[in-house]
Amino acid sequence: MEYQKKEIVGFKKYEIDTVGNVFTSKKSSRLKSTDGKLSVRRNSAGYHQVVLYSNKKSHQVLVHRLMWETLVGPIPKGMTIDHIDQDYKNNQLQNLQLMSHSDNIKKMWDVRGRSKKKDVVLDWIARGYNRKFISENLNISTSYISMIANGKR
User: Strands (DSSP E) along 14-93, which ranges?
Assistant: First the structure.
């Protein structure tokens, strides 16, 4: 994929590149870099976010969503942006894909290995083990065990 830098719609003087760097042409004494590159911080879920200003208001924006909306287009309702390699710090455009929210959740369960535990959970329930015992021994939540037992997983 060819390197590209594009202006962010709705935020004057801000740009994002295909690697996931966000830049500003605004002059500020708080800016740590000389090239205008903004520093990112990780939110509680591990995703990179930046603070952009528009009309004197600050907006915390997730970098991967900003990348997609700026370089690809709008994110349709019910869809989400997935990190293909599961590395939330890797916001390169080639590592992002549009995915339904439900498919993204299923992928997360598979990556964490929980879907492989489904058969074990069903077997242990059939043998009469209680959900607390199953939860403690398989390191999964009782709510997830309930979803499996009720056929929702």
Answer: 14-17, 22-24, 41-42, 48-54, 57-62, 79-83
